[in-house]
Design brief:
Blueprint: E1 2-3, H1 6-9, H2 20-30, E2 34-36, H3 39-45, E3 59-62, H4 66-78, E4 84-87, E5 103-106, E6 114-119, E7 122-128, H5 133-144, E8 146-148, H6 159-163, H7 172-175, E9 182-189, E10 194-198, H8 203-209, E11 217-228, E12 232-240, H9 243-255, E13 264-271, E14 303-313, H10 319-330, E15 340-346, H11 347-351, H12 353-364, E16 374-379, H13 380-394, E17 403-409, E18 426-432, H14 442-461, E19 466-468, H15 476-483, H16 487-497, E20 511-512
Parallel strand pairs: 3-5, 4-5
Antiparallel strand pairs: 1-20, 2-3, 6-7, 7-11, 8-11, 9-10, 9-11, 12-14, 12-15, 13-14, 13-17, 16-18, 16-19, 17-18
Bound molecules: flavin-adenine dinucleotide.
Residues 48-49, 85-92, 96-97, 107, 129, 152-154, 157-158, 160-162, 164-169, 213-214, 218-219, 470, 504, 507 line the site of flavin-adenine dinucleotide (FAD).
Length: 514
C-alpha cells in the first residue's frame, strides 16, 4: 500500500530498526555482484552533485545485471521497511538517487552491454541503463559512424538517469528529448519483475518509466535510435540586447523545417559586465576572440542574451558551401552586428564541450562545491514576464554559472510519458546552473536555495505557467499541483508497477507504508 507524504512531512524517516547486516549478508549470497556496507561506499552513495543533502543508505549494491537488480528489489519487498534507489552517476541536485537506510543500486557497476540493432531500416544501439552517454557516443561514432540524435549538454550522465527525467539539449527542438528517442526498455519493476517494454509491448510500463522519476522501475537496458554522425560542427554565438528579439529569432529557428534551420539551437542570459563567470567574456568561442562592447547599443540593459546555434557538416564538404549555408540560415536574424562568434570543431568535441568546463571547474574546486540548481519549463506565453521578473530583476548579476533559456516544442514530446509540461506548443527550458565558491559557508548555500524558492514563488504570484524540470518537492499537495490532471495517472502507474513504494524514495512523492 502506498502512503503519501505524511511520513516525510512529519520527518518520520527514522525507521523501525531492522537487522541490516544479516539482510546484506543474505543478499550478497544471492547476487553475482556485491553488497557493500563500507562507510566509504555508503558515504559516496549518500552524496550527489547538488551537495545539498547527505543521506546514508544501509548498503551500496553493485549489481552484475538485471537479475541482481530484481533480487535487490525482491529482498526489499520481503523486508518490512527497506527502499531501493537506483543511482546513475549521482548528478541529481536534491538527493533524488539516495535512500535513507535503504539499498542504493550502483547502476554503473552493471556489466557493460552494447550492441547495434538494425530494425526496419533504422539502426539502434542497445545499451545498459548504467552506461554513461559519453561512452555511448564514443562507441557509436568510433566503430559505426553513428550517433544518438538527442543529447544532454553534459554527457557524464547515465542513460537510465536522463531517461527517468527527459534529457534535453539543443537538438530536442527537432528530435524531441531523449525520452522521445528510445524504442525499447528492459525494466525491473517495483515488484521485482524483469520486463521488456516498448510502444507495442507492455506499453503502459514503457511510457510510465520514461520521465517517471525512477518511480515505476529501474531501467537496465535501453534501445536508443541512431543516425549517421556528422564529422564537424560549426558552433556560433549571436548576442542580443533585447529579450523579445532574441526569443522571436529562437522561436522562428525551432519552428523552421529541417534544412531551413540549424542542427542545434540553445540560448543563455549573461550579465552586461566584466564578471569572468557570468559577464560578457563568457560569450566568445575561439581562443583570442574578444567581446567588443562598443558594438552594443546605448540602450542595452544590465542583462544580454546569446543565441547559440550549430550546423553539422562532413569533412568532404567545401568550406565555401558551409559558409554559404550558414549565412543563409543567419540572414534575417536580429542579433547585434559585430557580436557574432564562431568556431569549427569535431562533432565529438562539440558534444564533449561541458567536459572541458568540468575539468576547469575541478581544478578550481568549484565542481565539488554545492550546486543549488533550479530548472524550469516556462510557457512561451509567460516567458517575457519571467524575463522581466527574474532575469532582469532578481538575477541581473547572474548565478555564478550559466543561465540557459531556449525554446522547445511540445509536439516533439509524447504525452503518454510521465513528464509534466506547461501548456502550449512552445515552452522554454530555463536552467539556473549555480556554482558556489569552494568551502562556501552553509548560509550562502541556504540563501541561494531560498532564492530558488523565491523564483518559484514569483512564478506562482505572477500566474506564470511553468513546471519544474528535475522537480523537487516536499509535499503531496505540491506534487499534485506539479502533475495537475496527470496526477491520478501517475498514482495509478505507481499502484501498478511499484505498489509497495519501494523505488526512488527520495523523490519524496510516495512513502513506503511500514
Ligand atoms: P542520478 O542522479 O543518479 O539519478 C536521478 C534519478 O533517476 C534518481 O531518482 C534515480 O533513482 C533515478 N535513476 C537513476 N538511474 C536509473 C535507472 N537506470 N532506472 C530508473 N531510475 C534511475 N539534464 C538535461 O536534460 N540536459 C542537460 O543538458 C543536463 N546537463 C546536466 C549537466 C550537469 C553538470 C548535471 C549535474 C546535470 C545535468 N542534467 C541535464 C540533469 C541530469 O539529466 C539529471 O540530473 C540526471 O538525473 C542525472 O543522471 P544521473 O545518471 O547522474 O542520475
Amino acid at each position: 500500500m502506498i502512503a503519501y507524504l505524511e511520513p516525510f512531512i512529519q520527518d518520520n524517516d527514522s525507521r523501525r530498526p531492522h537487522d541490516g547486516s544479516s539482510l546484506c549478508e543474505a543478499l550478497e549470497l544471492q547476487l553475482q555482484g556485491g553488497v557493500s556496507t563500507d562507510s566509504r561506499d555508503t558515504g559516496l552513495a549518500g552524496k550527489d552533485f547538488g551537495g545539498l543533502y547527505s543521506i546514508t543508505p544501509l548498503a551500496l549494491v553493485r549489481p552484475a545485471g538485471a537479475d541482481d537488480v530484481a533480487k535487490v528489489v525482491k529482498s526489499a519487498l520481503q523486508s518490512s521497511n527497506l527502499t531501493v534507489a537506483a543511482r546513475g552517476n549521482g548528478h541529481s541536485i536534491n538527493g533524488q538517487a539516495m535512500a535513507d537506510q535503504g539499498l542504493v543500486v550502483d547502476m554503473r557497476a552493471m556489466e557493460d552491454h552494447f550492441s547495434i540493432v538494425p530494425i526496419n531500416g533504422l539502426t539502434y544501439a542497445d545499451v545498459s541503463g548504467g552506461a554513461l552517454w559519453e561512452d555511448v557516443l564514443k562507441r557509436c561514432v568510433s566503430s559505426y559512424g553513428l550517433a544518438p540524435r538527442s543529447w544532454t549538454d553534459y554527457l557524464s550522465l547515465t542513460v537510465g538517469g536522463t531517461l527517468s527525467n527527459g534529457g534535453v539539449s539543443g537538438q530536442a527542438f527537432r528530435y524531441g528529448p531523449q525520452i522521445s528517442n528510445v524504442a525499447e526498455l528492459e525494466v525491473v519493476t517495483g515488484k521485482g519483475d524483469i520486463v521488456i517494454c516498448s510502444e507495442n509491448e507492455n506499453s503502459e510500463l514503457f511510457f510510465s518509466v520514461l520521465g517517471g522519476l525512477g518511480q515505476f522501475g529501474i531501467i537496465t537496458r535501453a534501445r536508443v535510435l541512431l543516425q549517421p554522425a556528422p564529422d564537424m560542427v560549426r558552433w556560433i554565438r549571436l548576442v542580443y540586447d533585447e529579450f523579445e528579439r532574441f526569443a522571436g529569432d529562437a522561436e522562428s529557428l525551432v519552428r523552421r523545417s529541417e534544412g531551413d534551420s540549424f542542427d542545434y539551437v540553445e540560448g543563455f542570459v549573461f550579465s552586461n559586465n566584466d564578471d569572468p563567470l557570468t559577464g560578457r567574456s563568457t560569450v566568445p568561442l575561439a581562443s583570442g576572440a574578444v567581446f567588443d562592447s562598443s558594438h552594443l547599443p546605448e540602450t542595452a540593459g544590465s542583462v544580454l542574451y546569446c543565441l547559440e546555434v550549430a550546423v553539422h557538416y562532413r569533412n568532404n564538404d567545401q568550406v565555401s558551401t558551409v559558409d554559404t549555408d550558414v549565412e543563409r540560415l543567419l540572414s534575417g536574424l536580429g542579433y547585434v552586428k559585430g557580436l557574432r562568434f564562431q568556431v569549427d570543431l569535431s562533432y565529438v568535441q562539440f558534444l564533449s564541450r561541458v567536459k572541458r568546463a568540468e575539468e576547469e571547474a575541478i581544478a578550481n574546486g568549484v565542481w565539488d562545491a554545492p550546486h543549488p540548481w533550479l530548472n524550469l519549463f516556462v510557457s512561451k506565453s509567460d516567458i517575457v514576464n519571467f524575463d522581466r521578473a527574474v532575469f532582469k530583476t532578481l538575477l541581473k548579476n547572474g548565478v555564478g554559472g550559466p543561465m540557459l533559456v531556449y525554446p522547445l516544442l511540445r509536439s516533439r514530446w509524447d504525452s503518454r510519458t510521465s513528464v509534466a509540461l506547461p501548456e502550449g506548443e512552445v515552452f522554454y527550458l530555463v536552467a539556473l546552473l549555480r556554482f558556489t565558491p569552494p568551502n562556501s559557508r552553509p548560509a550562502l548555500v541556504d540563501k541561494l536555495v531560498e532564492q530558488n524558492r523565491e523564483i518559484v514563488n514569483i512564478c506562482h504570484v505572477n500566474c506564470i505557467d511553468f513546471k519544474l524540470y528535475l522537480p523537487h518537492y516536499h509535499s503531496e499537495k505540491e506534487w499534485k499541483l506539479h502533475f495537475g490532471n496527470q496526477w491520478s495517472r501517475f498514482v495509478e502507474r505507481k499502484t501498478l508497477f511499484d505498489p509497495m513504494a519501494i523505488l526512488a524514495p527520495r523523490q519524496k512523492i510516495f512513502a513506503r507504508d511500514f
